[in-house]
Amino acid sequence: MSFSSGIREELSRLVPEEQDLKIAELSAALCFAGRLREEEGEPVLTISAERVSPVRKYFTLLKKAIKIEDSLFVLKRGSAYTAELKGREPVEEVFGACRLLKREGGRLFLRSRGLLIDDGRRRAFLRGAFLACGTVSDPEKSYHLEFVCPDEEKAELLRSLIQGLGMEPGVVTRKRSEVVYLKGSDDIVDLLGAMGAVSALMKMENVRILKEMRNSVNRQVNCETANLSKMVDASFRQVRDIEYLKEAGALDTLPEPLKEAALMRLANPEVPLKELGALLPVPVGKSGMNHRLRKLSEYAEQLRGEKKEQLS
């Protein structure tokens, strides 16, 4: 089961106790997944989904929120499931309670936003909208939540509701749909919480923690690797300069502290400066050892310059 499917299953099991929240969620489901058609002179209201669990919830909401029992069925047509309500009187009752109106092609719209007058109803509406047209990518791969809306009006409604929760969703046109989306993991977690998808929220938080830990470890390893590479490069240059001084017969002319440091580096090319300084007859710290090796490199560079002048 995909991450999105898991969220739908979780939200499908969540049926609010309050009547107004049932109505708000049902209204969203009808707006984003509902259709109205005529059959033998009678209106037929349908809500469809690819999985049976959301349709069962639509069926439950119709029964509990509108108190409809007769003329209500759950059907399977091909790979889709549909809750179907027949009859002018029950359909008109649903339209009145959910404040809906019909437009071209049997699509349904909110007659007004008066249904969404408080925070609880707005969250319930978003939950119903997600069940109808929402998806979330696998957080192991990326952070992306979206609602695929059939028109600009519904996209603008969702965008404003999400903004009311303190987030700033984007909107983009994709083929014939308007897509309202969130990219930030914090915003996605907040929206999942607002809709009541607590299990999905916790799963995503766990994934985020693991990813942050892995990234932290990777950054530390990369930093240590970079530092090790710098240390190896520096050691290589130091050994090269000391060997140059030795071949030029200049090593024995140096002050004893520098000569000791040079011989110790030649004998221990892979040892870090701090440990190298501790090996000297009179131990010195990291900065002291670094100072001596830097002086050796300066002497070597000076000697190279003098030889170059002699040859020119």
Mean pLDDT: 87
Q: Supply the CATH architecture of the largest domain.
A: Roll
Which percent range fits the helix content?
55-70%
What's the CATH superfamily of the largest domain, by name? Homing endonucleases
Tally of DSSP β-strands: 10
The end-to-end distance, rounded to whole angstroms, is: 77 Å
Taken together, the total number of domains comes to 2
Q: Count of helices?
A: 11
What topology, given as strand order, has the largest sheet? Answer: 1-2-4-3
Q: Unreliable segments (pLDDT under 50, ≥5 consecutive)?
A: none
- Please write the CATH class name of the largest domain: Alpha Beta
Q: What's the main sheet like?
A: 4 strands, antiparallel
Question: Strand content of the residues, in percent?
Answer: 15-25%
Shape: rod-shaped
Give an overview of the whole structure.
By secondary structure, the chain is an alpha+beta fold. The chain has helices spanning 3-12, 19-33, 52-66, 88-98, 119-133, 152-163, 185-195, 198-247, 256-267, 273-278, 286-311; strands at residues 34-39, 42-49, 72-77, 80-86, 100-102, 108-110, 134-136, 145-149, 170-174, 177-182. It folds into two domains: 3-196, Homing endonucleases (Endonuclease I-creI, Roll), CATH 3.10.28.10; 211-311, no CATH class. It has a four-stranded antiparallel beta sheet with strand order 1-2-4-3. Strands 7-8-10-9 form a four-stranded antiparallel beta sheet. Helix 1 (3-12) runs parallel beside helix 3 and helix 8 (198-247) crosses helix 11 (286-311). The longest helix is centred in the last third of the chain and has 50 residues, at 198-247. It is rod-shaped, with a radius of gyration of 36 Å. The N and C termini lie far apart (77 Å). The model has no long low-confidence stretch (mean pLDDT 87).
